[in-house]
Amino acid sequence: MGVVQLKRRIPIAFIFVIGEFIAFFLDGSLSQILSGTLYRYPNSLVPSLTLMWLILAVFFGDSKKLHITMWSAIIGFIFDMYYTGLLGVYVFIFPLVIYLCQTVYQMLPPNFMSGFLVYFLGITVWVSLGFVANSFIGQTSDSVAQFMVNTLAPTLAINLVFMALAYFPIESLYRSHRQ
Question: GO CC terms for this protein (predicted)?
Answer without folding.
Answer: plasma membrane
